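Hi there,

I know you've been waiting on this one. I reran it after we fixed the sequence typo, so this is the corrected version. Both the input and the resulting structure follow.
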Amino acid sequence: MKSKMMSTLEEWVPESRSWILDKEIKDHTIADYLLLGKLAEECLKKINSGNEYEYADAGEIAKVVNLIYQGGNQYTRNAIENEFLTKLSIEESPSSLKKHLDMLPKELRKEYLKTILEN
């Protein structure tokens, strides 16, 4: 049985199915974190590709993550902050901050900035 986060991501980001399905992971917590980490990596690739369509795809991924974050419990919010937002923030530089903030939905920007300051 999949977690709510995994099911939602698979529905809205179809390519995410292949990121975890090939692994036999019984612990949903580990699977959720692995999926969010891979999602952050894919999002960064799309942001840094220089292609406006890829950048738009990254924005769509961020919208889905935001929906999960806004509707999630404390576990879900922590997982997104710890895995997705932290991976984005590690790649942060002064030149990319505006691009990342523009891509993130308004509600998630505050958490992203908090993550940057904590790291």
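Quick highlight: The mean pLDDT is 82.

Best,
R. S.
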